[in-house]
Amino acid sequence: MKFWTDSFTRIIHGDNALCIPNAQNHVSFGGNHNPHLAWSDLPAGTKSLALICHDPDVPSRGDDVNQEGRTVPASLPRVDFFHWVMVDLPPQPSHIEAGEFSQDVMPRGKNGPGTARGARQGLNDYTGWFASDKDMAGDYFGYDGPCPPWNDEIPHRYVFTLYALDIAHCPVEGKFSGQQVREAIKGHVLAEAGITGVYSLNPNVKL
User: Fold this and answer.
1) Residue 205 lies in a domain
2) Which domain holds residue 33?
3) Residue 40 belongs to a domain with what CATH number?
4) Which of left, alpha, beta for 73 (phi over 0: left; psi -120 to 50: alpha)?
5) Is 105 helix (H, G, I), strand (E, B) or coil?
6) Which end of the chain is less crowded, N or C, counting CB atoms within 10 A of the terminal residue's CB?
7) What's the whole-model pTM score?
């Protein structure tokens, strides 16, 4: 099973990020386009695909996040943050165009779970991140790109994982999460493949 992108080689571009560096305010909104993704050589018996993008480098505590005069230390334990969760994606056509599922930052989130191609998209973790923001709070379905803390000492990795499944309908319903999909597809994965990009908003971090 092969899986690739034409949108980046290693460093994710601002067009695919929720936030980009800004000299005055540290960050501003980026293009937030989902990246191009393509696949081939799926195993026999593949009935649907599941796609997950997660950042495994999110601070486990938020005390220092985006605070002037402070940094998020590299030694801080990290947790997963889901940026995109999609299930019931048909194997054909064998690619996703850049910007097909996300073309901009949408305050309060995109509609879901139903989306193009008969697929369904779950909630990403900006749903929780923006929950207390009166201008941004909402259900964030589908893709929303990188926006790591601008004072984090480490670059963040963004892992896109494509799963070939032996079922046409993933057994999750309603407003499902990335972790729920991971649990639901256990025992149904015929093959999987991943792509990792890196991103930082900290000008002192070398990528």
Assistant:
1) no
2) 2-199
3) 3.90.280.10
4) beta
5) coil
6) C
7) 0.96
> Number of H helices and number of E strands within the chain?
2, 10
Q: Express as a percent the part of the chain with pLDDT over 70.
A: 100
CB 119 within 8 A of CB 181: no
Residue at 59 is within a domain: yes
Alpha-carbon span 34 to 98, nearest angstrom: 6
3-state secondary structure labels for all residues of 155-185: CEEEEEEEEEECCCCCCCCCCCCHHHHHHHC
Backbone angles phi, psi at 113, to 5 degrees: -80, -20
pLDDT value of position 1: 98
Distances (CA, A) of 138 to 12, 123, 132, 143, 173: 26, 10, 10, 14, 19
pLDDT digits (tens, 9 = 90+) for 167-187: 999 999 999 999 999 999 999
CA pair distance 196, 113, nearest whole angstrom: 25
- CA–CA dist 15, 152 (Å, integer): 21
Type of residue at 195? I
**Residue pointed to by tokens 């893709």:** 143
Residues 199, 175, 138, 68: what is their CA dihedral angle, to the nearest 10 degrees? Answer: -30
* Tens of pLDDT, residues 48-85: 999 999 999 999 999 999 999 999 999 999 999 999 99
Q: Which of 85, 70, 97 is nearest to 202 (CA)?
A: 70
> Using CA atoms, how far apart are residues 33 and 18, in angstroms rounded to an integer?
8
